[in-house]
Design goal:
Blueprint (H helix, E strand, L loop, with lengths): L10 E11 L5 E12 L4 E5 L6 H8 L7 E6 L2 E2 L5 H11 E4 L11 H11 L4 H14 L15 H13 L5 E5 L7 H18 L2 E5 L3 H5 L3 E6 L2 E5 L7
Parallel strand pairs: 3-8, 3-9, 6-7, 7-8
Antiparallel strand pairs: 1-2, 1-4, 4-5, 9-10
The chain binds adenosine-5'-diphosphate and magnesium ion.
Amino acid sequence: MPRPGYDTPALTLRDVRKGYATGRGGYLSVLKGVSLDLQHGEVVAIVGESGSGKSTLLHLMGTLDKPDAGQVLLNGENVFALPDAQLAAFRNSHIGFVFQFHHLLPEFSALENVAMPALIGGSSKRRACELAQALLGQLALTDRAHHRPAELSGGEQQRVAVARALVNSPDLILADEPTGNLDARTADALHQEIIRLSRSCNQTFVLVTHNPVLAAACDRVLQLDGGELRPVSGTEVIV
Ligand code: ADP
Ligand code: MG
């Protein structure tokens, strides 16, 4: 469902191409012209074999890397036309990331890790802590708020990472195999949390996953194959 006041897609990719220079002057073409429109509130799964370019695609969507050709528009804004400092501020306020490995800061508590993007975005310490407490509560982590990452289980670490991705109420959340490092039961619980949160917040989610159950719970499933993105039905997912 579109958010009020938004008449443009949350994310548009136009003929995006990306490759990497390899040793001895070679070139590996990874994305060979990917086009896509995501509407506000859509939850989309991206599947594909290992090495097919899923992480490359997510990095471009999240403005962490630039395409060789083509355009990335977020809320209609041609993000790579922005000066670097503005792009960094845009990323902090509009995009949330969850990676396969949590990337939490080891010397900070769960609460501080979640509050960090809000502080960077200019919230007061008090406001950032309130937001972080509320999210930790939603993810059943209230009694872990003062634990450091090393004092948390793998599932708890990833739930903290999800809370951190959501703290600035980003329009777009990008999750790259968020449960790939967890046992099946913990992964299932986290999948349910992610789907529940995405539905309740009406945010746009892109989830890279190998899990057919998670993919089938999304609005759309897109498969990356041969550098191109094509729609597949949830039940077709076999990777
Ligand atoms: P996936 O996430 O689907 O497993 P990636 O996007 O990580 O795939 O990688 C796609 C292809 O690009 C792989 O063959 C990988 O080896 C290559 N690749 C990824 N990043 C780089 C890089 N920085 N330099 C060179 N090759 C890369
Ligand atoms: Mg990957």
